[in-house]
Amino acid sequence: MFGIDLGIDLGTASVLVYAKGKGIVMHEPSVVAIDKNTNKRIAVGEEARLMLGRTPGNIVAVRPMRDGVIADYKTTELMLKYFMEKAGARRWPFFRTRVVVCIPSGVTEVEERAVKQAAYQAGAKHVKVVEEPYAAALGAGLDITGATGSMVVDIGGGTTDIAVLALGGIVCKRSLRVGGDKFDEAIMRHIRREHNLMIGERTAEEIKIAVGSAIREGRPDNAIIDVRGRDLVTGLPKTITVDSKECFEALEESIEAIVAGVKEVLERTPPELSADILNKGIVMTGGGSLIYGFDIRLARETGLPVILAEDPISCVALGTGKVLDGSF
Fold this sequence. Notes:
Elements: E1 2-10, E2 14-19, E3 23-29, E4 32-35, E5 40-44, H1 46-49, E6 59-62, E7 65-66, E8 69-70, H2 73-86, E9 95-103, H3 109-121, E10 126-131, H4 132-139, E11 150-155, E12 160-166, E13 169-176, H5 180-195, E14 197-198, H6 201-211, E15 224-231, E16 237-243, H7 244-268, H8 271-280, E17 282-285, H9 294-302, E18 306-308, H10 315-325
Parallel strand pairs: 1-9, 9-10, 11-17, 17-18
Antiparallel strand pairs: 1-2, 2-3, 4-5, 4-6, 7-8, 11-12, 12-13, 14-15, 15-16
Helix pairs in contact: 2-3, 4-10, 5-6, 5-7, 7-9
C-alpha cells in the first residue's frame, strides 16, 4: 500500500542512498559514534567522522565496514537503520521498503548473507544484492545488455573491483582488497618512516586529495601541502610540507597492485571481448579513480584508452537506481 524503493551503495568509506523517483538523497561517511557506557548511538555520518581520533574515553567512533564487507555487524545495522529512516523508510505494518544493496564482487556467501540480514534487520521488506562492478557499469551509462564487451575498474574505499561485462552479466572479474583506505595507510606509513611524524587518518586523506598522484612526474604544478602531526622523537607538534612527487612514492605500491589486477583480468578476457575493449576502452569509477593521473597511468600500462566516468563517486548508487527501475 505504501512503500519506498532504495538503492544503497554500502561502501567502506561512505554510504550513498538512491531513492526511486528522487535520485541520490544522501552521501555520508560510513562512521558511527557510540557511547560505550550505554551502547547508544550518538552520531552517524559526517558528524561522527569529525569525531574520529578526537573522542573522550566513553565515546568510540567506529567504521563498521572494512575492505568492502561488514566488520562490525551490530554497528552496521544501526547505521543502515539510520540512513534508511533518513531517506524516508518507515517501520509501519503496511509500509514496504524494497532495497538494492551493492557488495564487492569477491565476497563470500557468509559476507553476502550478513549484508542482506543487516538490511532486513534495519527494516527492509525485500532485499536484492548486486555486485559493485555491475552497478558501476550501469551508473556510468554503459550498455551492458548487448553482445559487445565493456570493462569497468571501480576503485572504492576498501576494495577495487575489475570486471568485463557483456550480455547483461559479468564475464570475468577480480576483486582486490586495495582502495582509498590502503592509500591513506600508505601515506601515514611513508610520513612516519621518512619524517618521523605521526598523522591521523583524516590528515592522510586530506594529503591524498590535495597532492595525490599516480604518475611519477607528479602534478603539473607539483602541488604542496602543509602537514601537521606529532614528532615521534620529541613528542611535540610539528609541521612539514609534502609535494605530489613524494605522495606518488607513498602510493606507488598500492597503485601498482591495481594495475596488475587490471592486466590479469585482461589476460583472462575472451579474444572477441578484448577487441571490443580495444575500441571502447576501460571505464574508471569510484572515488579512488579521482587521484591525479590514474587514468594516464592505466592507459600507459595497458595501451588501451581509459575514460573517467562523468560522476565516478555516484556511479554505483546510480546503478542501483537503474536496477530498481528494472525488474526487482
